[in-house]
Every structure is written in structure tokens, then in C-alpha cells.
Write a structure and sequence with these properties.
about 300 residues, alpha/beta, Glutaredoxin, Glutathione S-transferase Yfyf (Class Pi), Chain A, domain 2, ten-stranded mixed sheet, globular
């Protein structure tokens, strides 16, 4: 099977979520370190414009957003599962609630100062030009109160002695809950919130112990060459499972996929998957050849090009 290649940087919390997926499934993978700030020429060569971290590459298929990364890994490597409770709907609901903590933590870190360097701050200001980061410190106490409420939900979930959020086996809900809390612990105020709890710290240790699988390093240019020499995985043709009548856009049309999160970067291409949970476009570049770039339906929009 084609190598799993993760384009990431080590301090990325969302990349930690995927690294833990590799660990949970016991997978070997290749690590491509990308710049924390723009420009990211090799990554953009593969994605077509999407700039966020991480991105999963499997040959000439590029997966943008951790939700679609999880689905891709679950299809290819179903055992052990990311959904041990057997209730996908409830699990995704837990993930979504857990990750509301992420931007709260970012606000606390920016408002506390001394965590991010000037280059990082300038890059994020370009991603969100309407946000006044200089005023983040004013709402740090309010964000800490919101985070305490989110932490309490995890504390109560674990109070019955279960080892993980949905029972005795770890799953995607644990990984989604862990990475924002891990980041929160970097700040003194956040660490104080975590340490005051009885069950969450031990749960965090269990999640961290899952590890990252077997990692080896890969140069970004090599990853682009791997994409060029590969072919995208086969895709259902029109009339099969793909196609979504809701937006009235046909497979084969030229479209733009736009993340709803400001500053993430839009991607143009030929629409090849447009189903209930997944969007994908085919695109071609001189360096990387033919690629298919995949997105989750949630938080992404598809519009006709032009």
C-alpha cells in the first residue's frame, strides 16, 4: 500500500491528532516538516491553495482537514477502529464539542504573551485581517472560564472509571479532545486548570502513551515526486455513489472549494466527488502531476468556478 505522508510541523496541535491516529492504528508513516508560516511552496503545490496544517498525502491523493484524514485512514486501516463505541454520530458530536476548545486556547496563548514569535503573529494576522489580536488579553479570564466548563465535561465523562472518553478503548473522540487540552497545558493558567482535575490528567497520560506509530523523515521535494509518480485512487463514476443533488453542481464541472474558516486557502479543480460527507477535486500541476484533493463536507463550500 502507498506510503502515508504527513505534511506537518511538530508543534501543531491538529497534526498531533493525526499523529495519534497513526499510533492508535500502529501505522508506519513519513514525516514532511512544513514551514509554520507562509510561504509553503511544496505544500501548496500539492493542495492547490489550502495552507492549513496538517495535510495527509497518500500517493497522488491529498487529504485536507483532520476529519477527512480520519475517514481515509479508517477506510484503509479499519482495525483497530477510531470508533470503538460503534456510534459514529455521537462520536463526531463529541469531537466537534471537544474542538471548540481550540480557538479558546489560542486566545489564551495570544493574550498571555510570550508563546508565539512575531513572525507567527504576523502570519496569523494575514489569515484573519479583521481580528485585533492585540486585545486578546482582555478576554483571557472569560476564555479560561469557558475552558474550565469544557474540561468539566471531560472530567464528568471519566468519573465512572472508564479509561477513555467512550469506554475502555481509545478512539477519535479522545484524540480530538486531547490536542487542545495538551496545548492549553503550555500556559501556566491552563496548566493550573488541568492540574486541579482528578481524572483528566491521568486520561491525558493514557492518550499520550498511544504514541505516533513508526515515523521516518522525508524531504518535501521527494513527497512531490512521489505524487507525480503515483495515480489517484479510483473514484466512483457519475451515476454511482458520488453526486449531491442539493447543490445542483455536476461531477466534472470546474469548481472552487472554499473553507469556511477565513485564511485557509481556496482550491480550484474538476469536481470528482460530491457526496454527503466528502468533496474532492482533480487538478494537475507540472511538478506534482495529476492529483485529487479531498475535503470533508463539514465547514467547506463548493461553488462553480467563474
Amino acid at each position: 500500500m502507498t506510503d502515508l505522508i504527513l505534511h506537518h510541523y511538530d508543534m501543531s496541535p491538529y497534526a498531533e491528532k493525526v499523529r495519534l491516529m497513526f499510533g492508535l492504528k500502529g501505522l508506519a508513516w513519513r514525516s514532511v516538516q512544513i514551514p509554520i508560516v507562509m510561504p509553503k511552496p511544496d505544500l501548496i503545490e500539492l493542495t492547490g491553495g489550502y495552507r492549513r496544517t496538517p495535510t495527509l498525502q497518500i500517493g497522488a491523493d491529498i487529504y485536507c482537514d483532520t476529519k477527512i484524514c480520519a475517514r481515509a485512514l479508517e477506510v484503509r486501516y479499519p482495525d483497530p477502529t477510531l470508533f470503538p463505541a460503534g456510534d459514529d454520530a455521537a462520536t463526531w458530536g463529541l469531537c466537534r464539542q471537544a474542538e471548540t476548545s481550540f480557538m479558546m486556547v489560542v486566545t489564551v496563548m495570544m493574550g498571555s504573551g510570550g508563546v508565539f514569535d512575531e513572525a507567527f503573529m504576523e502570519d496569523r494576522k494575514k489569515m484573519a485581517p479583521g481580528v485585533d489580536f492585540s486585545r486578546a488579553g482582555l478576554i483571557v479570564p472569560a476564555k479560561l472560564s469557558q475552558l474550565r466548563a469544557n474540561l468539566d465535561l471531560f472530567e464528568r465523562q471519566l468519573r465512572d472509571g472508564r479509561r477513555f472518553v467512550q469506554g475502555d478503548a481509545p478512539g477519535i473522540a479522545d484524540l480530538a479532545g486531547y490536542h487542545p487540552i495538551m496545548m492549553l497545558g503550555v500556559t501556566p493558567a491552563g496548566k493550573k486548570l488541568i492540574d486541579a482535575l482528578e481524572h483528566v490528567p491521568a486520561w491525558m497520560a493514557r492518550v499520550a502513551a498511544i504514541g505516533h506509530g513508526s515515523r521516518s523523515e522525508l524531504d518535501a521535494a521527494e513527497a512531490v515526486a512521489i505524487a507525480r509518480d503515483a495515480e489517484p485512487a479510483s473514484i466512483a463514476q457519475p451515476g454511482d455513489a458520488s453526486g449531491d443533488d442539493a447543490d445542483r453542481i455536476e461531477l466534472g464541472e470546474n469548481v472552487i472549494v472554499m473553507p469556511e474558516e477565513v485564511g485557509s486557502g481556496a482550491v480550484a479543480g474538476e469536481l470528482v466527488i460530491n457526496d454527503v460527507h466528502e468533496i474532492a477535486v482533480r487538478r494537475h500541476t507540472e511538478r506534482a502531476g495529476e492529483l485529487v484533493v479531498h475535503f470533508p463536507r463539514e465547514e467547506y463550500l463548493v461553488v462553480r468556478a467563474g
